[in-house]
Amino acid sequence: MKIAKYSASGNDFVMFHADIKEDRTELTKILCHRQHGIGADGLVVLLPSDKYDFEWQFYNSDGSHADMCGNASRAAAHYAFINKLAPKEMSFLTGAGVIKARVEESDEKSGIVLSELTPPIIIDKEITFNGRSWWHLNTGVPHLVNFRESVEEFDIEELRELRYKYDANVNIACVDGENLRVRTYERGVEDETLACGTGMAACFYRALQEGLVGNNIEVYPTSGETLYLGMNDRTITFKGLVKNTFITEWETTI
Ligand SMILES: N[C@H](CCC[C@H](N)C(=O)O)C(=O)O
Do 2 and 249 meet the contact criterion of CB atoms below 8 Å apart? Predict the structure, then answer.
């Protein structure tokens, strides 16, 4: 089976396409294992669809299922385009609903891809934890967001406690001029990742609601890459580079 490895701003994924939708929890844990497998934050499987260019399955590296993944949506769009599974402008079905994506520049190895995320939903704006103000939002998956002076104020144990208390990804952010810096503890990876697309979107949306930033900004995740987030009349757009870092033949031994 041909398997591709992608990095979307440092959030990395193992990816392939298949004809059959089946439980791939155990395969995910093997492929995503950093020492015993290929190593990745998640697995994406593209599947045929009657209504959309494709449907996908997304699993976090621990084998848990998640409805959506912003960075993987950009990587999957590039994979679909270069494997002739979809045109440059496409729509595909995820657990969070239909995602539109556009491959803007691309060759076999990399591309600039824009995804339209699902409309953000504010669940709770009144959470106080350790004396800090947190918002609970859903940008395809659940996120907690707190703003502080610097993203260096990052206590992973504090974020891990919140992750389990609310079963959500946990983000800290700070304003950097007209833009944002974001660090994310990701549910299902159970650690900080180098970037989290729906997390950056959740931080952007809180900052927008609180008048801290404009409608179109740059966001810098832990990897230091530049992502472009915007608010259009419908939802949040999320754009940046994705890299197809390698392709391999994989014989499953399970
Ligand atoms: N870990 C997340 C899914 C992946 C989200 C993230 N990688 C992104 O780019 O949006 C969850 O379990 O809700």
Answer: yes
Catalytic residue list: 69, 196
171 lines ligand 1 (CB under 6 A): no
pLDDT tops 90 at residue 254: no
Measured CA to CA in angstroms, residue 132 lies from 125, 144, 202 at distances of 12, 12, 17
Task: Kindly state if the Cβ of 222 falls inside 6 Å of ligand 1.
Answer: no
Strand 227-231 and strand 236-249: pairing?
A: antiparallel
Does the beta carbon of 11 lie inside 6 Å of ligand 1? yes
In angstroms, the CA 42 to CA 26 distance is 12
pLDDT, one tens digit per residue, over 182-226 is 999 999 999 999 999 999 999 999 999 999 999 999 999 999 999
Which segments are annotated as binding site for substrate?
A: 11, 60, 70-71, 169, 186-187, 197-198
